[in-house]
Amino acid sequence: MTTAAPPTALFGYDFYQNPFPAYEWLRENSPVHEFAFPVGNIRTWIVSRFDDVHQLLGDPRFSSNPPSWASQEFMDAKMMVGSGTAVERIITMLDPPDHTRIRKLAMSAFTPRRVAQWHEPTHAIVEAALDRLERHERPDVVDYAGVIPAEVMGKILGFPLDRYNDMLHAIERAFHTDPEDEDATRKAFEEIAEYGRVLIAQKRQEPADDLTTALIQARDGDDRLNEDELVAMLAVLIMAGLDTTRNLIATTVLSLLERRDQWELLRTRPDLVDSAVEEFLRFNGGVAVGFFRFAKEDLEFGGVALPKGAPVIPAVASANRDPRRFADPDRLDITRTVPRHVGLGFGLHNCLGAALARLEASVAIPAIVRRFPKMTPAVPVDELRYDEMWLVRSLTSLPVRPHGDG
Amino acid sequence: MAERARLAVDQRACVASGLCATLAPALFRLTGDGVGEPRSALVTGAAEIESAEDVAGCCPSGAVLVTPVLDGAEG
Ligand code: HEM
Ligand code: SF4
């Protein structure tokens, strides 16, 4: 066993501030790296090269379902997301055939017609958010970035997400690597599930032309989502749809403020928006790592022997910066068109909301650049901080001067 | 229920999620570019057809097309 360690302790404070040197160390020195995951102190492996992450996400020797396949150590440490709540049956943690069944029912509600209906409200929400940003005493891009997925999700699900801030806080508590106490995480998940329950009850009474009603009514032959499955689906949409998008928008705006040439290119070349969004998903992603995968048997992966039940983390943010895959990976280049990234996952669990994620990013990011061409950060960027959240790279705030220094 | 179905991927709609080749590797593979591709244009038997329909239902871009071939129609 190697005694050498990454330059910053994985999933520690310094790592969250800038994980990329640690990812580079992992890719070079220990591409399938064993370490102790800080929550629960459990034996975990992290996979960091593009090819390995890609392989892992499509490898039938691994499961996403902790109760069936995770090590006892993992379960004892109560590491399972949403353990003991409705959230423990979310789609991200199901294997086929359960996963197939739920995904088909959910996907049937995301019709192209429905996605097309979301364009106009997204534009309206973004314009209103820009107006508010301009008028704000302390304009902050993280607030802007957060309001957009919240209002868009609210609109789509058919519910004003008036408890949006509670919800974001619940998600933050749920995925914090330093939980306040043992119960805090479970309570946070229960809050998220309860939110879903209220929404379903409301839509059963008053069906409308929205995604929640479509999910309630979704049919596959005689099959449909039952109450618990609906709660889990709403919970996962809320969890997967808000923070990811917020962080993609916020960290991308920061990256563009730091690279004025790319800012100008995006501002003056609206035709580049599609490749730009893919590059943003690659470069900043929004998602840092995928959910745990578990080895279903003793096996070898990337030359490393993994015991049955081993929890393995796919580091998608690292895969997307792998120089073996991407030329000059640490350069943001919105004209880059190939090759494909794994910012929205790969394989069975690839992002169900990908069309919406792309839509929100393609509207919200160019719009802020066009509205405020001279925007500058209002604080030195090296003072900016990231939250200790392991699933998403979460900027705490980005104060700006919308019209620059002049 | 038809015993045969045509299987196709609309490669312009495909977003290269890799789901098809992961869920049903016997029926789909990915091109070098990561785009989904049926291994054969025709699937036969209830099990294969069901598997193809599962993929069509799970595909994030609606790019997988399964069309039953009615008996008597040319295959
Ligand atoms: C920028 C925004 C987003 C990013 C970067 C993102 C990224 C991802 C990634 C990487 C995965 C795979 C996780 C894994 O394999 O462990 C995933 C899955 C998922 N995402 Fe997204 N996502 C985003 C937005 C959304 C939105 C807006 C929704 C919902 C409307 C959503 C719903 C989901 C769901 C339900 C899954 C699980 C799919 C399954 O298990 O079959 N995501 N996402
Ligand atoms: S599942 Fe659909 S989107 Fe994904 S690779 Fe196959 S055809 Fe393309």
UniProtKB/TrEMBL annotation, chain A:
Keywords: Heme, Iron, Metal-binding, Monooxygenase, Oxidoreductase. The keyword Metal-binding applies. It comes from Actinokineospora iranica. The keyword Heme applies. Coiled coil: none annotated. GO terms for molecular function: heme binding; iron ion binding; monooxygenase activity; oxidoreductase activity, acting on paired donors, with incorporation or reduction of molecular oxygen. Belongs to the cytochrome P450 family. This is Cytochrome P450.
UniProtKB/TrEMBL annotation, chain B:
It holds the Pfam family Fer4_13. It comes from the Bacteria. This is Ferredoxin. GO terms for molecular function: electron transfer activity; iron ion binding; iron-sulfur cluster binding. InterPro entries: 3Fe4S_ferredoxin. Keywords: Electron transport, Iron, Iron-sulfur, Metal-binding, Transport. Ferredoxins are iron-sulfur proteins that transfer electrons in a wide variety of metabolic reactions. The keyword Transport applies.
